[in-house]
Design goal:
By secondary structure, this protein is an alpha/beta fold. A 5-stranded mixed β-barrel has the order 5-8-7-6-9. A hairpin with a 2-residue loop joins strand 3 and strand 4.
């Protein structure tokens, strides 16, 4: 089992910035450019942090970016890690654990996902209301870490109050959003048509290879979580063309401005009490 030294990472970061972020945001595939929205950014490559797991996927740059957005101190995690890269399940929670150690108590998770509803077009934005763990593993596997609970309650992994607020902010800006359930698969292969049929039958609306372990880690730390999926493609069996990662990145680029404006409004709004 890998050993991650969160205090050593924190010390390395404090050599560059003393900022204690109120809010952390994990940026999904193709969404890394949202970090350009920050004022007075401090950029720290994750490769400079001892024992930090490294991302190897296009669209995940591997940087921590501290700065101000809408008058609030934030941390952008630009480059998450995934189970399919060969990382141990505990690795998937490291960015969230580090954000918490630096002061963040609120977490926005974004991702690119396959759509399971044939009526949802690519580019649809979905607020995550619940999740299904089909990877059948957890970042909490192993010894309990300081500040975590052994058996976190997962009855509301995505804060209902914050989710409702996000939906209201979208409506006020004439931004159409959906609400739904996200299912996590281990990857890296895309899902088969039979798997997609199964996921739809058990109540999933979107499918992807991230986010769920981060939400689990945040629950163990008592953080408030908001989840947003960009539906970048219809899943296997729901359209005639094959799936590819470039399509995911391209749709992410197309929705960038709408998503950035929405996130700015979310950051400016009052955060839910922890």
């Amino acid at each position: 089992m890998p050993a991650f030294n969160i205090p050593a990472m924190t010390t390395a970061i404090r050599e560059h910035t003393g900022m204690e972020p109120e809010l952390a945001l994990v940026l999904g595939s193709g969404l890394g450019a949202l970090a350009d929205e920050l004022d007075d950014p401090v950029v720290i490559p994750t490769s400079d942090l001892p024992s930090y797991p490294q991302s190897t996927v296009e669209g995940h740059a591997g940087k921590l970016i501290f700065g101000m957005l809408e008058g609030r101190s934030v941390l952008f995690i630009q480059g998450r890690v995934h189970l399919y890269e060969g990382h141990h399940p505990r690795s998937l929670g490291v960015p969230v654990r580090l954000a918490h150690a630096l002061g963040a108590r609120h977490l926005i998770l974004t991702n690119a996902a396959g759509g399971l509803n044939p009526d949802w077009k690519p580019g649809t934005l979905m607020l995550i209301t619940d999740q299904i763990n089909m990877a059948m593993t957890s970042p909490l596997t192993g010894p309990v870490q300081d500040g975590e609970v052994r058996f976190p309650d997962m009855s509301s992994p995505y804060d209902p109050e914050w989710t409702a607020q996000a939906e209201r902010l979208a409506v006020n800006r004439n931004l159409q959003v959906r609400c739904g359930v996200y299912v996590w698969t281990a990857g890296p292969s895309y899902e088969t048509p039979a798997e997609i049929t199964f996921f739809r039958r058990i109540g999933a609306d979107a499918v992807g290879m991230s986010t769920v372990p981060e939400a689990i880690q945040a629950a163990a730390l008592g953080m408030k979580v908001l989840g947003i999926s960009t539906i970048t493609n219809l899943a296997a069996g729901l359209h005639a063309t094959s799936l590819n990662h470039e399509e995911v990145l391209e749709v992410g680029r197309e929705v960038r401005e709408r998503l950035a404006a929405w996130i700015r409004a979310l950051v400016a709004a009052p955060l839910p009490a922890v």
